[in-house]
Design goal:
Strand order of the largest sheet: 1-4-3-2-6-5-7
Radius of gyration: 53 Å
Oligomer: single chain
Strand content: 5-15%
Largest sheet: 7 strands, mixed, barrel
Shape: elongated
Structural class: alpha/beta
Number of helices: 13
Order of helices and strands: HEEEEEEEHHHHHHHHHHHH
Helix content: 40-55%
Number of domains: 4
């Protein structure tokens, strides 16, 4: 009996003694769904269908009630706004209840209801008479193709369109051959080496330059091969950094006295300039006009002396 109970426990996946709860689903039709059908949440089995019965509801979408038995601890994985639908693993396989979880923080309680997924707009708006008319149109089109009345039928049944298409392809091929002949620009570029050399020569020159750099030739090659210049640059940068550190650690940068002395010196210069600007000599134009008049008189005197020096010579006889 102990072995038998162990086998039963293992065959049931270890859930035989776990507490279970019932939740409900209302559907319009239970075709293909039966007692024992799996109940899955996001593809994972969480329970089975316990009963499929009539709900005695007048709502056409709630004709059948599906009673599902789910492990109580699995209810935490089913948000309250989840929806269910009837699915199957294949076209002819048995159906099962497929529950798709949503993002709500609340979970389905024992005895709660899972809502059925609403039908897609395509199936909801399906019009059988319109579908039948479209199928009749498709049948008529296939009949025209089979009889060769339409262009598609002529293409399928006859060879005229095929011959026309082959002739068009032949003309295109001839035009292409004429375009790539040696007498045209395209043909000259394809069959002569002029364009190839114009492209190959710069590439070869670039390859030689890179080879010279790699072998250490020239200034660039020496810079790449020898690390002395790099070390010298690093040393200069290090010396500059040390100099900046010394300047930063200097008395002028660390002490406020030099800064205050510098400010006092600048303030004294500013005061001197203010006193100079306040001097009457600069504020009054009389001195400037007097100096200008004296300069003009001196200029006129020099001009007269250069023109007639005799006027300024006086002989006095005793």
């Amino acid at each position: 009996m102990l072995i038998l109970l162990t086998l039963i426990y293992l065959l049931t996946g270890g859930t035989l003694l776990e507490e279970k709860s019932s939740i409900y689903l209302y559907i319009p039709d239970a075709t293909g769904l039966d007692k024992g059908s799996p109940v899955r949440v996001d593809g994972i089995d969480v329970g089975k269908v316990a009963r499929v019965e009539l709900s005695r509801s007048n709502d056409p979408n709630r004709v059948v009630r599906v009673v599902m038995t789910v492990e109580r601890e699995r209810l935490n994985a089913i948000p309250v706004n989840s929806y269910a639908e009837l699915s199957s693993d294949s076209l002819i396989g048995d159906k099962f209840v497929d529950i798709t979880s949503q993002t709500s923080t609340a979970h389905v309680a024992p005895g709660g209801e899972i809502h059925l997924k609403p039908p897609s707009p395509i199936l909801k708006n399906a019009d059988l008479p319109t579908l039948e008319a479209q199928l009749r149109n498709v049948d008529a089109l296939l009949a025209d193709i089979q009889s060769g009345k339409s262009q598609m039928g002529q293409f399928v049944q006859g060879d005229k369109m095929y011959l026309d298409l082959r002739n068009s392809v032949g003309k295109i091929q001839k035009a292409f051959h004429a375009a790539v002949s040696t007498t045209t620009l395209v043909g000259d570029a394809l069959y002569n080496e002029t364009l190839y050399k114009q492209i190959a020569d710069p590439l070869a020159k670039l390859d030689r330059t890179l080879s010279a750099l790699q072998s250490g030739q020239g200034t660039g090659g020496q810079l790449l091969r020898d690390s002395a210049q790099y070390e010298s640059s690093v040393k200069q940068v290090r010396d500059l950094r040390d100099s900046l550190s010394q300047v930063r650690a200097g008395v002028w940068m660390q002490s406020d006295e030099m800064y205050k002395d510098w400010n006092r010196t600048l303030l004294s210069y500013i005061q001197r300039m203010d006193r100079l600007n306040a001097d009457p000599l600069l504020n009054s134009t009389a001195v400037y006009e007097s100096l200008t008049g004296m300069a003009n008189e001196a200029r006129d005197s020099v001009r007269d002396f250069r023109q007639d020096p005799k006027k300024y010579l006086r002989l006095k006889l005793f």
